[in-house]
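seq/struct pair 1
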Amino acid sequence: MTNILVCPDSYLGSSLDIITTMILRDLQDIGVNITVIPFVQQRIKLINGSLDDPEIFARHSLHVLETLLTVMQSDNKILFVDFFQPLLPLLHYYIDCKEISVKYGALFHGATFIPGDFFAEKLWMKPFEIGFVSLMDSIYVPSQYAAQFFPNVRNNVNVFPYGFCADNYQKNLDPENKYFDVVIPHRWASDKGADFYLEVIIAMPERRFVVSQLGIDSTVPGLGSICRKVKSMKNVIIIGEKSGPSYREALVHSRVVIAANKQELFGYGLREAIASGCIPVCMDWACYPECIPKDHLFASVEEAVELINLYADSYPTTYFSLPNTSFRPILEDFYGS
């Protein structure tokens, strides 16, 4: 038997770093011998995703197909992490003709058929992705919110929280050691609610915001103007720029983290901030109601402003932590069955 994991090697500035690292660690802990096929062959700083470079995406897809043809034996279990593979139907045709036994699985961190997804407007991609999904024996998603949007195909969609360990983060609950009122750790992109965050910043000139550097220099029509306005605000500090803090420092020294992403299946940036000592205020949609108490959810800019003021002023009275989670249940379910 050959156990295979197809995953991003390393995407800088992305939760995929956390996902891949934890999966490999959990596989080692449960004693599964694994053949790893990295989808991305070099370290790439994630800004708008490798799909924006058709040469990179095509070459990596071909690499995965060629490697799978090389390593597969008589009995195989192949788990794909995040990226769909447009050439999988061709691989399936090959193994079907050769009568090779294969079990397919996939962990989804996004999908074109989930509302608000970054790649939802790429119409060419959806048929490939639905074809990829239709071949899966097991699909794993981290929230009920995500599960409801998957096409009606033969496989089971399994809901398991993804792995996250709060113990890996320095926590600061000292109000005297909080230099920022609000942290926005999400990259500046259309699927991350950039327009909403700008409205909140404008509505709270007396509050000090620290925001992500990722995508802040975007020139994408519409998004670029939002980012320029954010950079011009006197109450905004940008992570990593000039005298700005590092990413981890921004989380540790902020009172409140806001999350209003248009597409969110698990919320790694949010969880990192909570683990570092931030109190969350989140939009009442996507995966947030599944993990965040109702009195921390908002439905409008006005409600977000009200909650930020409440929790920033009363900090750390209402702070709470989220439980640690692991990929082990997913890995045991797939490779152990």
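seq/struct pair 2
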Amino acid sequence: MLKVGVVNDTRKHSHYGCSLVMDNLHKLLHDNDMSVAWSWPVHKDWRLHKDEILAFPEVDLVIVNGEGTINNSGRKKYAQALMEFAAFSNQYISENCYLINSTLFNNTDESYDLLKAYRGIYVRDRASLAELADRDIVGTYVPDLTFYEAVPYRAVESHKSSICVTDNTVKPMASRLKKYANTKGYRYVTMMLAHPRNKPFWKSPRTYVKNCWKWWFEDRNRSTEPQAYIDTLREYELIVTGRFHTVTMCIKNRIPFAAIASNTPKIENLLGDILGESSRVVTIKDIESDNYPEKWPFTPIEQEKIDQFMLRANVGIEKMICSVKLDTTREDVKAPFQYL
């Protein structure tokens, strides 16, 4: 069984979408006779803890889970850290280092050059693939890992409640969405649970205290399982969300939604890949209007495109893991990476 090191394990922040990504990654690895020997958490800069990483057990390969981290590398240290990791791995850990499940946006040319050290690169939208192509970097497109394991289409039942509103990664917009939900009398749920472990006291005392308070009085009785969050979404006719992974869950489970833009164009890019357009991305002013509808069912064309996409997504995700395994066990160590 091949031993794997995983970098940017995003489960630390009690985020339902990130938890589902990691759950699916572990399942895919297990089903392909690979096991995770160690993982490195999100928002812990490996460059400051090299000795800690080098003390981990030896592995056959390293998988870096990009998700939404790799954007604006000129001002975001964690984006830059992930882009630098392949060179470090090649020298000290394993030359079998692969970037998967990543969105790329607005990074510096110098940072993009660092990605050439990865043996294989898998991005989760075609706009990110274009970012690579513009710089003569080889990679391929495979949808986000939350799409793994297709869910058959199931129509929304007419007796369900009207609208559920979720948060946004941009804090001012999350506050506005919460205010909108309270004004309209809609349910408001967050995609990330408050928990004392989300951010340590020494990094941000104020955030730590807020997380402790919210966890104790609001979130400690909420399930941490992604399926519990999905089951909540299923209760409503329409989801209004500013979260990328809430959109992926809605698409996968055929739950109608209206999306508010996130911190990068990742939602617009996602919908462009699936539906060919992004009309379901609306503005906050749109949903705050008095005549905004409480239902927005998928059209037959949207349903068909989603069904076709889900089949392609599962095939692509499985091929990605198979490609990584075959490459790691190749006889010719100098052979170029082959995308299946």
